[in-house]
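Same chain as my last thread, 188 residues:
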Amino acid sequence: MPSVKRCAWCGEDPLYIRYHDEEWGRPLYDDRRLFEFLILESFQAGLSWITILRKRAAFQIAFDDFDPVKIQAYDDLKINELLNNPGIIRNRRKIQASIANAKAFLALQQKTSFADWLWAYADEQPPKPQWARAEDIPVYTPRALRLSQDLKKAGFQFLGATTVYAFMQATGIVNDHLLDCHCAERSF
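reply #2:
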């Protein structure tokens, strides 16, 4: 039986494989889930994504299931609780950025859905994969840079172009499955 061809980055780890096959690159339109990925991607900065995946359940509990209303109200007591939680990435700047990002997210939602705002940065719906080799995939694109700048203008923090591009990949705003990956042309 032939083996299933996947993007090389997911390797052999069952958690990574499940994430690759079931989530990564699938167009996501739910504001709350988009917010979750935005927070997780900001915590991933400087780390491997598998580290975040392994801590995802703890993040969901620690960050009140990524409820932006609750997160925007976090105080010093909650920040200290998070800083002492070994189940998550304990970085004060990233925690504080999450609070700022919840406030910015809620402010943006007063004008439009977060999904509609983000998907304006997609060229196609759904986007088509274009890469034959992993080394050809850029670390960010001009669209990611523009989205990063626009997020910052809207009050979001800790979301540089590389982090934003990873977010765009994860949520299907771009489709960077390799051309020979079994997920590349799948109808989502």
